[in-house]
Specification:
The protein is mainly alpha-helical. It contains ten helices and no strands.
């Protein structure tokens, strides 16, 4: 059980209350993980600024990275949230499973991206030369490379916040990949 309560609007700073109000309007609710960030007066705003920052990656590419990174880090909160978001971005259940495994047989370019995201997360930044070469050969640029690394960091932050706080998952649960592939 979580030692971190899911903060309500009344329990957070005025600054975070305004962010909660904005999330309610935009998303329809305040995800529990975002409420965990609100234990800090600054972390929620800082995280939302990072995750919403401009990038060269498309929404679908961002979800490919989010799924691969969250799978490596075994964050079922983020896997559940990003499975739902990936479906909203047009991925099928089968494609989502592949992306979680760090591959995309259905799209050569996404395959290079998902493999890179998985590898850099597993290797804590020491990317295999072949994986990097495949990423660049798939059509990604050095700018995309840096944007992908920033996104890996962004998602790792949320993975770690959930791993530590263990706030309840408030999205449809993603199943463990190994039980699905078996």
């Amino acid at each position: 059980m979580s030692k971190f309560n899911v903060l309500t609007r009344a329990e957070v700073s005025e600054k975070n209350q305004n962010i909660f109000d904005s999330l309610e309007k935009k998303v329809g609710f305040v995800p529990n993980l975002y409420a965990a960030y609100a234990h800090s007066n600054n972390a929620l705003e800082n995280y939302l600024n990072l995750s919403g920052a401009k990038t060269t990656l498309s929404a679908k590419e961002k979800e490919a990275v989010n799924l691969a990174v969250s799978e490596v880090n075994q964050c079922f909160y983020c896997l559940s949230a990003h499975t739902a978001i990936a479906k909203m971005n047009g991925f099928t259940d089968e494609e989502i499973l592949e992306l979680r495994a760090g591959k995309a047989s259905f799209n050569t370019k996404l395959n290079g991206l998902a493999a890179f995201a998985k590898n850099i997360t597993e290797k804590r930044g020491a990317t295999d030369a072949t994986v990097l070469e495949n990423f660049l050969n798939a059509g990604y640029t050095k700018e995309n490379l840096i944007d992908t690394i920033v996104l890996v960091g962004d998602k790792t932050i949320s993975n770690y916040v959930h791993s530590t706080t263990q706030v309840p998952i408030d999205f449809p649960l993603a199943q463990p990949l190994n039980t699905i592939e078996a």
